[in-house]
Every structure is written in C-alpha cells, then in structure tokens.
C-alpha cells in the first residue's frame, strides 16, 4: 500500500502558503486570522500532492484583542467563502463519511475546529449555534486559563469550572469533538472522565519522553484511549528537550503513544502547514520577535524559544506524510498500523462522535 491508498487526516494543521506576504504562518504575527491565509495555486497543488485527505483547520478566537464571539462568527464566514471559492478542491467535513467522500472525489476535506472555547463566554448554548455552522471540533482551552478551565501554562492546574462541565455536556449533546490539546492536566483528566462520548487530544507529545507542559502524561493518554478516544502527535519542538525536534523524535513519540494507548487510538496532528517555508534564514530573523510577543501576551508554552522552529525541519513539505510512513515502516510497523496512524484511527473516532 502507498500513501495514495490511505485516508490521511491531519487532526490539527494549517492550509496556507507561508511564503506569501499576506500569510500568517511565517509572518511572526501574534494573532493569526483566517482572512490572512494565502490559499493559492501552490497551496492547493501541494496539499493534493501530499496525499492528505482532510485537515482540522483552526478558525475562530484563539487569543488577542478581539470580541471572541463576534470574531469567531466572522472567521466561520471567511472559511465558508474560502470553500465556495475553491469548491473544486475543498469540501467541508461534517460526518465521518465525508472523509471517505473527500478521498473519493479527490478533494481536501476541511474540518472546522476551534483551539479555544472562550467564545462561549458564559453561554454553553452557543455550542448548538457553532455546531449548526459546521464546527466539528472544539478545544476547551488554549495555553492560558479561560472560563472553562486551565490551559497547560496556567499555574493553578484546576480542573473544569462549573461552566466547563456544562460546555462538555453541550458538546456531547451536539456530537462535537471535545479536544483537550493545550489543556492543563486536571482539566484534561476531568473532561475525559465526565464526557459521555470519547474525547481527543488532537496535537500533543508524550511527557514521559519530554517533560514539558504541552505534552501529555501517560495517565492522560491512557484515560483518553481507554474511553475510545484519539491522540494525535504533533511535529513540534516540544518533542525534544533541546527544542530542536527531528523526524526521529516524532517517531519516538508515536511509538510511545502506541505503547500506552494501543495502535487503534494514535494518529497525527502536525500543527503546521504542508507548503514549507522556503527561506528559513529570513524566518529565523522574525522568530525571536514572534516568541517574545507570545511571552508578553502570556500565550507562550514552555519550550518555545527564539532558536527553535515551531515545526520539524526534516519532516515538512509535500512529502511529510510519505516520509513519516517510511520511517514507521523502518521501525517495523506494518502497513495496517501505519494506515491507522495516518488517518484510519481518526476516521474511526469521528464515526463514534459525529456518526456517519
């Protein structure tokens, strides 16, 4: 089997050409908004060439000086317009079977997802509004605390607030994935325990290998998997204690996650683009300012540094999924297990939460 035969799902990624002047992915801007994405011919051609079937794209309020609810509604409108403009290449994913349909049609499935639930404010009934607008994944917190619970960098390490428990119940009711990436440990554990549906950690690493707050403990990983959930390993600097993560580190974290969770519950959520940054030297010049600004805003995670790329340099670009498959094969993984990790496990999880 080859990558063309697999369902490949990036459980958290970016569709953008980071080399374009207007794009957010390599700009160093603190706040990245969907109307600053550059989805041009190169972006689309390289997404198709990569073999990816679907991407969970971040839209809505994550951080910054915006009114969270209104900003999020605007972001959804922006993505609706993007899909209309590029309807020959892109389609929205609402159900698990839409992943199969995207593969059949040769389109890139776009999954609407949030990386913060701050736009709920004090109204959990807004989950129904967002579900009706096509949002299929809602991450409870970013790195900071919000009204739902604590993020990974919040010092209190609280569990869910009473409002947070209401939001989880609403997400379950409306069959929206509860994503526990970026959450603090207690928020993650409590949400996983009270959720009536399986939950996910769409982009993370393993804290047993690298002790950083953005990585998840074995207890968190095991609990999520034991309830039928999904864990996506990212292509981020937090996979190596030096901050200089390589493809081999991605493999090690996948192997550890499989050992803890079982092979049916692990996938990938790269947290990056498919189109690679062409001029890494120029990007380095902007990176220090970007990291400093995130620290000033209280949004940075431990392990973000001016000398570390927020991606894995030798696992990027059009061949990133093929290269990962090759490395997993070298590690002794069977084609069936590799297929699960690249997307089949996310599809199974999506069926459990979204239905067909």
UniProtKB/TrEMBL annotation:
InterPro entries, A to Z: Metal_Hydrolase, Pept_M19
Signal peptide residues on this chain, from the entry's feature table: none
GO BP: any one term: proteolysis
GO molecular function: metallodipeptidase activity
Name of the protein described by the UniProt record: Peptidase M19
Organism listed in the record: Nonomuraea zeae
């Amino acid at each position: 089997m080859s990558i063309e035969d697999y369902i490949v799902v990036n459980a958290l990624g970016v569709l953008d050409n980071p080399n374009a002047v207007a794009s957010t992915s390599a700009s160093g801007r603190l706040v990245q908004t969907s109307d600053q994405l550059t989805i041009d011919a190169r972006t689309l051609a390289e997404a198709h060439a990569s073999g990816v079937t679907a991407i969970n794209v971040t839209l809505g309020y994550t951080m910054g000086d915006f009114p969270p609810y209104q900003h999020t509604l605007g972001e959804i409108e922006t993505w609706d317009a993007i899909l209309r403009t590029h309807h020959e290449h892109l389609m929205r994913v609402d159900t698990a079977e839409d992943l199969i349909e995207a593969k059949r049609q040769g389109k890139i499935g776009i999954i609407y997802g949030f990386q913060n639930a701050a736009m709920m404010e004090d109204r959990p009934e807004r989950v129904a509004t967002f579900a009706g607008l096509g949002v299929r994944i809602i991450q409870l917190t970013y790195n900071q605390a919000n009204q739902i619970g604590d993020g990974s960098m919040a010092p209190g390490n609280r569990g869910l607030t009473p409002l947070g428990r209401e939001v989880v119940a609403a997400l379950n009711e409306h069959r929206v994935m509860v994503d526990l990436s970026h959450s603090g440990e207690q928020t993650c554990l409590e949400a996983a325990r009270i959720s009536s549906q399986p939950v996910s950690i769409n982009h993370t690493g393993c804290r047993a290998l690298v002790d950083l707050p953005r990585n998840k403990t074995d207890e968190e990983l095991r609990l999520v998997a034991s309830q039928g959930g999904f864990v996506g390993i990212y292509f981020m600097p937090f996979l190596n204690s030096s901050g200089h993560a390589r493809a081999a580190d991605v493999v090690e974290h996948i192997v550890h996650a499989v050992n803890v969770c079982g092979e049916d519950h692990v996938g990938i959520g790269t947290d990056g683009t498919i189109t690679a940054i062409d001029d890494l030297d120029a990007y380095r010049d902007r990176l220090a300012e970007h990291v400093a600004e995130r620290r000033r805003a209280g949004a940075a995670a431990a392990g973000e540094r001016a000398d570390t790329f927020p991606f894995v340099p030798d696992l990027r670009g059009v061949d990133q999924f093929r290269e990962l498959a090759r490395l997993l094969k070298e590690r002794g993984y069977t084609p069936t297990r590799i297929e699960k990790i690249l997307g089949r496990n996310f599809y199974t999880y999506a069926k459990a939460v979204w239905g067909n």
